[in-house]
């Protein structure tokens, strides 16, 4: 079993358990790279929440993964300013070129492709983050370059 240190939450504070959930999920994802589904009951019990509440928060936020990421992680901004600069078409191109449906990890584990919602580069979109590196003005050719690099 995984030994996780979950912060103590004073039960007498109304709403304290729910407000502790996000930091706990962040802590687990930082430590493991994802939040394993089998931990949901343990988290729920530790915070006096229902499993459904924990599951709901876990799946609501795009930030959290419930499975390990691929060796390369491509995140393409789909927020408004980037959409105005072609981010939807870029995501479609990336899905085809990387052979990976948005929001999934390719079966061989090479690539995870994810939508994200604003990377702070709104004036120079479409923006992306590739293996933790921010990229501005991403084009289809940029994506093609990643695809080639990931296969080598
Ligand atoms: Fe894409 Fe802000 S909208 S970086």
Summed up:
This protein is α+β, with helices and mostly antiparallel strands and about 150 residues long. It contains six helices and five strands, in the order H-H-H-E-H-H-E-E-E-E-H. Helix 5 runs parallel beside helix 6.
Helix and strand layout, with pairings?
Blueprint: H1 16-32, H2 40-47, H3 51-60, E1 72-77, H4 80-83, H5 87-97, E2 104-105, E3 111-116, E4 128-130, E5 133-135, H6 140-151
Parallel strand pairs: 1-3
Antiparallel strand pairs: 1-4, 2-3, 4-5
Helix pairs in contact: 2-3, 5-6
The structure holds FE2/S2 (inorganic) cluster (FES).
What does this structure look like?
- The chain has helices at residues 16-32, 40-47, 51-60, 80-83, 87-97, 140-151; strands at 72-77, 104-105, 111-116, 128-130, 133-135.
- It has 152 residues and is α+β, with helices and mostly antiparallel strands.
- The chain folds into two domains: 1-67, Arc Repressor Mutant, subunit A (Orthogonal Bundle), CATH 1.10.10; 72-151, 3-Layer(aba) Sandwich (Glutaredoxin), CATH 3.40.30.10.
- It is elongated.
- The mean pLDDT is 90.
List keywords for this structure.
five-stranded mixed sheet; Glutaredoxin; alpha+beta; 2 domains; 13% strand; Arc Repressor Mutant, subunit A; 152 residues; 5 strands; binds FE2/S2 (inorganic) cluster; elongated
């Amino acid at each position: 079993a995984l030994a996780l240190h979950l912060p103590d939450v004073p039960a007498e504070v109304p709403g304290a358990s729910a407000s502790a959930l996000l930091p706990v999920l962040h802590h687990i994802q930082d430590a493991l790279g994802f939040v394993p589904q089998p931990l949901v009951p343990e988290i729920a019990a530790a915070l006096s929440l229902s499993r459904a509440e924990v599951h709901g928060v876990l799946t609501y936020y795009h930030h959290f993964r419930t499975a390990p990421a691929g060796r390369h992680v491509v995140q393409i901004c789909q927020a408004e300013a980037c959409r105005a600069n072609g981010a939807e078409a870029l995501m479609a191109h990336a899905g085809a070129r990387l052979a990976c449906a948005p929001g999934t990890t390719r079966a061989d584990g090479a690539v995870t492709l994810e939508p994200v919602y604003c990377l702070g580069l709104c004036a120079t979109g479409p923006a992306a983050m590739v293996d933790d590196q921010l990229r501005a003005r991403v084009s289809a050719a940029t994506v093609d370059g990643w695809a080639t690099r990931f296969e080598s």
